Amino acid sequence: MGAMIEACGLHKQFRTPVVKEGRFAGFRTLFTKEYRLKEAVKDINFTIEKGDFVGYIGPNGAGKSTTIKMLTGILHPSSGEVKINGVDPHKHRRQVAKKLGVVFGQRSQLWWDLPVKDSYDILAHMYKVSASEKEKRLDELGELLDLREFWETPVRKLSLGQRMRADIAASMLHDPDVLFLDEPTIGLDVTAKRSIRGFLKTLNSEFGKTILLTTHDMDDIEQLCERVMVINHGELSYEGTIEHLREKIGLPTVIRIVFRGSYRLPASDSSGLPIQLNLDTEGSYRIVEASGSEVLIEANRQQVKAMDILRTVGGWGEVADIHMEEPDFEEIIHRVY
Ligand SMILES: Nc1ncnc2c1ncn2[C@@H]1O[C@H](COP(=O)(O)OP(=O)(O)OP(=O)(O)O)[C@@H](O)[C@H]1O
Questions:
Q1: Torsion angle (degrees, nearest 10) of CA 217, 219, 223, 225
Q2: Chain-centre distance of CA 310, in angstroms?
Q3: What's the 48 CA to ligand 1 centre distance in angstroms?
Q4: In testing the pocket of ligand 1, which one of 65, 69, 214, 215 has its CB within 8 Å of the most ligand atoms?
Q5: Which of 1, 188, 298, 299, by CA, is between 20 and 30 Å from 198?
Q6: Measured in angstroms, how far is the CA atom of residue 328 from the centroid of ligand 1?
Q7: Ligand 1: does its nearest atom lie under 6 Å from the Cβ of 63?
């Protein structure tokens, strides 16, 4: 294992001319000396190891694309450094491009009017992939991504799901070590999303690709990424596992208990649910709802151990079934933004 992607003290400022108001505004703007500085990325630091699958999330305009552009060498940082497998992507763009695959969900890198396979021929030529290598890889990718069914179809006639599969295959043609994926499931239906996610998982776990995924789809993140980085106003506001993020935000876990036969809640004579109750240990929980044989409890898992809850509810009656629901990830993310 080693660092595959490194960002160190990364900054990016955009200088945009201040637009003048009033008569001849456009003309005066041309000669203006006034600029407004927009700090899109402010002191970002992270390391992504070989074989990691990391989510990069944040609200619109947070600085995700700007970061990705610096990582791929398209944009030069105002200050700070980027290394892809130890190499600066801006200084050695060609060398680094061979290591990188990039997919923009909103924009295809394929030739719109050409059959899918022709785009691959052009890309293979651009990336200096030999004919035999290309055939071998397309055999593999064709099978994994089910490309054969639309091999001869012009790109503009593909469904969005097919187009996305074709684009991912295109980004893999030169067998890069690192993949940058920007909204690879955007606009897809549930089935197409599932197939793309399945494929990305395979790329990571079986082919060892290092993947950085930008998305607004929280299911993508939850199902694919071990780690997330949250960017907000150009700064990383969180970096770590999804579990830890859950704990940090401290949204309650919902515990659903089904009793066999009668049970007795600690404050069952009071009708004013929810009730805040304290456990013997320092944690607390709330009874949110009790109807029929079912009782819903909310507890913060950071403070309350599952065993304490079990012991407590066991004292109320005979427990037939117990089910814990972790807080919804989407909700957690909203709290971080
Ligand atoms: N070329 C540019 N010139 C001036 N400002 C820019 C430029 N590119 C981006 N910005 C500004 O920098 C900020 C970050 O933009 P960026 O595109 O990185 O956000 P993002 O997180 O990718 O957003 P989204 O989720 O909407 O794609 C925004 O305020 C944007 O307006």
A1: 40
A2: 35
A3: 23
A4: 65
A5: 1
A6: 28
A7: yes
Q: Which atom of ligand 1 is nearest to the CA of 59?
A: 25
- Provide φ and ψ at 141, rounded to 5°: -65, -40
Least confident of 17-31, 51-65, 109-123, 196-210: 17-31
- Residue 114 in tokens: 């050409």
Q: Tell me the CB-side half-sphere exposure of residue 83, using CA atoms within 13 A.
A: 15
- State the DSSP H helix or E strand holding residue 84, giving kind and residue range, or none if neither: strand 79-84
> What are the tens digits of pLDDT across the range 159-210?
999 999 999 999 999 999 999 999 999 999 999 999 999 999 999 999 999 9
Sole residue written with tokens 């690709």: 209
Q: 215 in ligand 1 pocket by Cβ < 6 Å?
A: no
Ligand 1: residue of 14, 107, 235 to mutate (most ligand atoms within 8 A of CB) is 14
pLDDT in tens, 215-255: 988 889 989 999 999 999 999 999 999 888 877 777 788 88
Tell which residue, 276, 258, 257, has the closest CA to residue 266.
276
As to burial, measured by CB atoms within 10 angstroms (0-12 exposed, 13-18 middle, 19+ buried), residue 30 is exposed
Distance CA 114, CA 96 (A): 28
Mutate to test the pocket of ligand 1, among 19, 64, 212, 214 (most ligand atoms within 8 A of CB): 64
Tell me: cis bond preceding 274? Omega within 30 of 0 counts: yes
Identify whether the C-beta of residue 266 lies closer than 8 Å to the C-beta of residue 277: yes
pLDDT in tens, 124-163: 999 999 999 999 999 999 998 999 999 999 999 999 999 9
Residue 149: its H or E element: none
| Signed CA dihedral, 294, 299, 301, 303: sign only | negative
